[in-house]
Amino acid sequence: MSAGPVSERRAASRPTPTSSHKRAGPGRDALLAWGFLGPSVVIFALFLVYPLGRTVYLSMHGNDIIGQPNRFVGLSHFAEMASPEFGRILFTTLVFTLGVVVPGVVGALVVVLLMEGVLRGQKFLRGAFALPFAFSVASASVIFAVFYSPGNSVLNGILYRMGLDQVPWLTSQEMALWSVALTTVWMNLGYGVLVLAAGIGSIPKEVNEAARIDGATGPRLAWDVTVPMLGPQLFFLIVISTINALQSFGQIHILTAGGPVGSTTTLVYSIYQDAFAYGTSDFGRASAQALVLLVVVLVCTLVQFGVIERKVHYS
């Protein structure tokens, strides 16, 4: 029996798209797409677009004693930044960022490479070095405040036992910034160790075995094989560490409050001082500095993507 009549009957019974269906199809798809995207768009607009627009608006307005904008001042807040005081704040921010990113990334890399040479207890060491990541900024800052305390400092006690002079960790203009940077490096070390340890675990064993057959062992194996293979993880850590360092606030506020004599006042802490500290409520100047911080973060990120990422090998 031929299948022709059956298929013809099925085709005849199948509903044919009408012109109204053809018109409603793309509309329904677009409506469905906006239904899924709508919540994300609303959240994006509320928590990113509106705050950014409000910051731009405030940066061009003066305000009264309670922070309400009451007059248009144009770019005068930006012009006020062309001063030696603001230049010192930018320089402090740059030094603090370098003092956090470089030792933080290098320290995590050294720790992970050393752990690779340990045959037993790698999981315990990995957990121990990752432990600082579990501390909040406030907890870590209080711990280091005890270490740095001028009255009963743990670190100065160790130096005294060794016959060395005591160090004014938080009260010296020369030492305070480095002391806060050391605290930040310790806080970020655990995250760096976790990221790089995961990267080492993803390197194929055949790569290391082939390198050993070619005579690469120890530091040469680490430098010529392991470190290049960790390029994506190192690049990610550099970008994230830079952004986090530029936005650091809690440890500065708890340990030094921007002092002594402004030696630890970074750009973020200067924004806080103008907007909220001492009852100033100078939201216009603070907003202008916030926009400068946004530009600094964008420029640093673009430079890192343009320079460092070109040397990263993605396998």
Give an overview in words:
Residues 89-304 form the ABC transmembrane type-1 domain. Keywords: Cell membrane, Membrane, Transmembrane, Transmembrane helix, Transport. Belongs to the binding-protein-dependent transport system permease family. It is found in: Cell membrane. By secondary structure, this protein is an all-alpha fold. It has 14 helices and two strands. It has helices at 4-13, 19-59, 76-79, 84-116, 122-130, 137-148, 154-161, 176-201, 205-213, 218-229, 231-246, 250-255, 267-275, 283-307; strands at 61-63, 69-72. Strands 1-2 form a two-stranded antiparallel sheet. β1 and β2 (69-72) form a beta hairpin. α2 crosses α14. The chain starts with a helix and ends in an 8-residue tail after the last helix.
